[in-house]
Specification:
Layout: H1 2-12, E1 18-20, H2 26-33, E2 41-43
Length: 57
């Protein structure tokens, strides 16, 4: 909820919104992916840097 509030405030102020990640499993990144359709930019490819990501998706 708090992330969506920040997104709404940024939009109201005429700002573009981006979400990103560090090197994380695809499971952790999936939470951020839920917000990405409502954002201007998404950089969620951190799981590609993990050779043995134990999650699919």
């Amino acid at each position: 909820r708090e992330a969506w509030k920040m997104r709404n405030l940024a939009e109201a102020l005429g700002m573009k919104v981006m979400i990103g990640c560090m090197t994380e499993t695809s499971c952790a990144i999936s939470a951020a992916a839920q917000l990405s359709p409502g954002l201007d930019f998404a950089d969620l490819d951190g799981a590609l840097l993990i050779g043995n990501d134990c999650f699919d998706g």
